[in-house]
Amino acid sequence: MSKGKGEIVASVKIQNExxxxxxxxxxxxxxxxxxxxxxxxxxxxxxxxNQVNQxxxxxxxxxxxxxxxxxxxxxxxxxxxxxxxxxxxxxVILWNYETGKMIKQVExxxxxxxxxxxxxxxxxxxLGDNSAxxxxxxxxxxxxxxxxxxxxxxVVDGHSSRxxxxxxxxxxxxxxxxxxxxxxxxxxDLRQPNSxx
Length: 197
Description:
Layout: E1 2-4, E2 7-8, E3 20-25, E4 31-36, E5 41-45, E6 51-55, E7 66-71, E8 82-87, E9 91-96, E10 101-107, E11 112-117, E12 123-128, E13 133-137, E14 142-147, E15 163-168, E16 175-180, E17 185-189
Antiparallel strand pairs: 1-2, 3-4, 4-5, 5-6, 7-8, 8-9, 9-10, 11-12, 12-13, 13-14, 15-16, 16-17
């Protein structure tokens, strides 16, 4: 809650013994989802801070940190119950946050460091430690495109190090930006494998 003059006052404090690496409000603002270093995705009521559910992978024995969490956003279809999550071991998992059940998954041969949903299409991007950005179809979980630096070393048309952030343009459906450890923000078009600038 804002108190005025730019001061932010916490209305709810959510405590957990494991560190949270990422979090997001649900589209209707009723829930907060957080990804933790122990590999557990926890869902909290935003008004009370009470935990209402959690998603735990059963395919790993040791903790595999969650690197990003995203509620699916489809304004034309209303609220959805899907969460997109990524992990340091390369897993990308779709969960139903109401039931806590896994819907679909894919495994990347890299550390997957982040993801972002397309605002209108059933597609998402994943980001990782190999400098490439992958576009997936959410329905099939098939990779449709890889965005990366071209073969000409003198041209900076893609990342040269880990990619940590990406976001689709809110109005132009085919455009997105990305940033990473190479200290460069790239502008991309979904139809081209190399960045525009």
